[in-house]
# Entry
Amino acid sequence: MQMPANRDRVLVIDDDPHSLEFLSEILAGENLKVLSAGSGRSALEAITTKAPSLILLDINMPGIDGFEICEKLKADVRYCGIPIIFVSGVHNHKEKIRGFDLGAVDFISKPYHADELIARVRTHLELNRLRTKLEAEVALRTKELFHSFKQMRKVLEAIVNAMAVIVETRDPYTAGHQRRVSQLSLSIAEEMKLDKEVIEGLQMAAAIHDIGKISIPAEILTKPSKLTDMEFNLIKDHPRAGYAILKDIEFPWPIARMVLEHHERLDGSGYPQGLKGRDMLLESRILAVADVVESMASHRPYRPGMGIDTALDEIENNRGILYDADVVDVCLRLFQEGRYSFGDPR
Ligand SMILES: [Fe+2]
# Structure
């Protein structure tokens, strides 16, 4: 006769041959595959050969006793999920509690009714089946969620890059500026050992920090001569314009706020809000330093690049006045130790 392939395997462990035989007979009548072991040692061997679905375990046995077996199995990730039911003549309630403390799911006292024993075995097999199914479901859903989360981040990154390209297409003189500011911001933030999540947001904000320039007429952006006050005021409006574009997008980071604050200065002399000190986000204070250093070092329509030394002098001279002292120190260290340079020519 062919046996059903998915019959539950129940391991019965008891040093008393009569108890072992009686238990095995009861369970075999229930279409369960019954394995038996007459000692702790042979039980452990049987388990490692092929893990059973459930274990019925005697306590008092010569050599390795039931408690020790239970303890060993619960400490082993391969077998800790197997439900263990103690079946014992022990009636001391403290011993029973010890069994549960060691991780057993049930305790059946001898003598027992066969029907009750079968009902308990069935219940625990079913509970274990449900638990295993639930664990597999949670693992699968977690994997799916992680995958869609990664996809979402990729899409977000692509959209932000597309936004950066749009601004730079209208303003060829600053092409690459946002990318270089983003790279320098990243290096400063990493050197400051900021959280990986925070760094990711800062990088993204830096990559589009001048997005508000989209609202400035191209003639002003590319004007080779000195700007009039009115033109300069229009340019100064770009952090606010950028904020207006981004504020309703639910980024997982305060991107719009970083964009709004990237021209603020520690002493309140910046724009558009004239914020002071720690009213600005730390990310904004990093972005401000990276922006100034990159802008001064590179060419602008109305002036040639001033070089990296002049840019670093600017932040050093205004350390703690216009720019965050810690951010300035880290930025100076990166350049002075030759650990950072603007790679491509401008
Ligand atoms: Fe800007």
